[in-house]
Amino acid sequence: KAGVTQTPRYLIKTRGQQVTLSCSPISGHRSVSWYQQTPGQGLQFLFEYFSETQRNKGNFPGRFSGRQFSNSRSEMNVSTLELGDSALYLCASSIGTAAETQYFGPGTRLLVL
Amino acid sequence: AQSVTQLDSQVPVFEEAPVELRCNYSSSVSVYLFWYVQYPNQGLQLLLKYLSGSTLVKGINGFEAEFNKSQTSFHLRKPSVHISDTAEYFCAVANYGGSQGNLIFGKGTKLSVKP
Questions:
Q1: What is the C-alpha to C-alpha distance for residues B8 and B107, in angstroms, rounded to an integer?
Q2: Distance between CA atoms of residues A104 and B103, nearest Å
Q3: Residue B103 to residue A4, Cβ atoms within 8 A
Q4: Is there a contact between A92 and B44 if contact means CB atoms under 8 Å apart?
Q5: DSSP reduced 3-state for B84
Q6: Which long-range contacts (CB under 8 A, 24 or more apart) does A3-6 make?
């Protein structure tokens, strides 16, 4: 079974731009969660989508948004990029309950200049 | 609110020595507990998880962890480490019976195995 894939793997943007990251979950998984990983703050939960609906949301500004499509693929968008948005963005997929293992993709490394 | 504390940010150890990575959590509700490993330039991989039942949990690559409810701890151990165990390890919690997502992670412990 193919794992979680994320595109692109690396991205360089400038302040004020917007960016869209993509995540394709493992086949059959309906939950996709997004996390931001930085050296200072560690791993922080952004949001989770389940069956095209946002089910949980972390404490991030409204510039961070996402969506999920009917095939469970998910996209994350960050508008008006700031230097502090430079991070590794990880997505994880699972069947959908808290007890289930989340399978992580390799991440998209975003650098904002 | 839940929180996870990993007491050591870095742990250096020699090959074939035992290692313990410490994790304490705080939560007002029952939780599930996880240990993930992250190798350089990769995503996270599950090592093991505690859902219920036996407090000693065995995972992949020879790792095990013990859940201690009274001390709210979930320490990770390996009796003999290899160079290939060099990586960053994350402890995480999730709400018992809750929906997926919203894993709360600790800050991570970098394990460095020296020959």
A1: 9
A2: 12
A3: no
A4: yes
A5: helix
A6: A3/A103, A3/A105, A4/A91, A4/A92, A4/A93, A4/A103, A4/A104, A4/A105, A4/B43, A5/A105, A5/A106, A6/A89, A6/A90, A6/A91, A6/A105, A6/A106, A6/A107, A6/A108
Highest mean pLDDT among A73-77, A95-99, B29-33: A73-77
Of A43, A92, A101, nearest to B90 by CB-CB distance is A43
Cα separations in angstroms, B93 against A28, A44, A88, B49, B106 = 24, 12, 21, 10, 9
Contact assignment for A56 to B99 by CB distance below 8 Å: yes
Residue B13 vs residues A45, B62, B85, B90, B114: alpha-carbon distances, Å: 31, 16, 10, 18, 6
- Note down pLDDT in tens along chain B; length 115 residues: 788 999 999 999 999 999 999 999 998 778 889 999 999 888 999 999 998 888 899 999 999 999 999 999 999 999 999 999 999 999 999 876 555 557 889 999 999 999 9
Residue B45 makes CB contacts below 8 A (sequence gap 6+) with: A104, B36, B37, B38, B39
- Flag if B99 and A97 touch (Cβ within 8 Å): yes
Beta-bridge partner residues of B99:
A97
φ and ψ at A83, to 5 degrees? Answer: -55, -35
Size of interface A-B (CB pairs under 8 A): 79
